[in-house]
Amino acid sequence: MTAVVNGPSPQQSGPASACGLGASSQVDPGSIERMAQTIHRRYLEHELGERHEAGSRPGLRPWAELAEPRREANRAQAAYYVAIARNRDWSVVSAGPDGDPLTFTDAEIEELARDEHVRWRRHKERQGYSYGPLRRDAGPDKRHPSMVGWEKLSDEDRERDRDVIRNMPAVLAQARLRVLCRPAADAG
């Protein structure tokens, strides 16, 4: 099974990455769903305990109890992983023994984390959120303190966006997918 990337796309500007076979691939909806559930499970593991109590925020519930808009947010993040691959002309394929594991340089993590924050912010705007110093998830006037540009984002929230990118290989693996990489000497 080849895993939803719709054909090759223009590569992003910047230095060539060691990953990138340029082949078209597809990710099935079941894989996106598995990725979304893994994303949510990893989020809960990170946020619960020292940081927050279960149920103290709408997203801090098991998948089975999660409201559909929150599930859709996790699916959007899973689809973003596929978009990262597409935008960099990488291939998402079924997990197998061939190829090097996906790794990101520190610069790639930083670049992709900034992009992730933009993606997250746009998603929240579509849900009706705007900036507010205190989080408010109910009613027509939804507010979130992280609805700011990267430069004004708290260190904790920046690290959360970096973790989204760092988690990508493990999330793909849980969906039995991977991004194949070739040696840096072959890239370009």
Description:
The chain has 188 residues and is mainly alpha-helical. The chain contains 5 helices and 4 strands. The strands form 2 sheets. It has a two-stranded antiparallel sheet. The chain has a two-stranded parallel ribbon with strand order 2-3. The longest helix has 21 residues. The protein starts with 28 loop residues before the first helix and ends in a 9-residue tail after the last strand.
Number of strands: 4
Radius of gyration: 17 Å
User: Unreliable segments (pLDDT under 50, ≥5 consecutive)?
Assistant: 1-25, 182-188
Q: If you average the pLDDT, what whole number results?
A: 79
How many alpha or pi helices?
5
Distance between the termini: 27 Å
Largest sheet: 2 strands, antiparallel
Order of helices and strands: HHEHEEHHE
Query: What percentage of amino acids are in beta strands?
Result: 5-15%
| Helix coverage percent | 40-55%
Query: What is the 3D form?
Result: globular
Strand sequence of the main sheet, in spatial order?
1-4
Q: Which class best fits the helix and strand makeup?
A: mainly alpha
